[in-house]
Design brief:
Elements lengths: L1 H42 L1 E6 L2 E7 L5 H13 L7 E5 L3 E4 L28 E4 L12 E4 L12 E7 L1 H5 L13 E6 L4
Antiparallel strand pairs: 1-2, 1-8, 2-7, 3-4, 4-6, 5-6, 5-7
Length: 192
Amino acid sequence: MAPKSKATPKAKAPAKSKPAKDAAVAAEAVTETKAAPKDEAAENTLLLQLSTGVVTIKLRPDLAPQHVAQIKALAREGFYDGVVFHRVIPGFMAQGGDPTGTGMGGSKKPNLPAEFSKEPHVRGVCSMARSANPNSANSQFFICFDDARFLDGQYTVWGEVTDGMEHIDALPKGEPPRAPGQIVSMKVAADA
């Protein structure tokens, strides 16, 4: 019996060490796989800091890649920091992104061609404001308080609020509000 027991541990030892090594390699691969989507998610998330708290916005490059790219570029430049919500209509939407606070301004970047989709304008949806010209979106955007399906297919949806909608709800109302709510900062989560 003694020789059998000695042979058994020797036979099992290599089998145990190989799965442990394979498990370590597999765990490392899983960690690397999970890191890429996390970085991608952070790259496609905006953190909109208002005086009342943070609003988290999931960007939708699948719907509007050019609009998302411009919003991220403007956020990274600090363009939106200090800009007010100049038009806030209860039951409809809150509009901001104009550095003049009048609804007539924009950035120095070129206007964007429309990227209309079938995505519905419902509570929390972020969409681009524009003039009568469908290809005139630049920096102004709005966030829907409620369903606004009559806008579907006419305005570019570029994101959706995933957290902090109560801070949008709390913005002072008016066209313009007497004391407009202000964007303290807007950052891409990957940079925060």
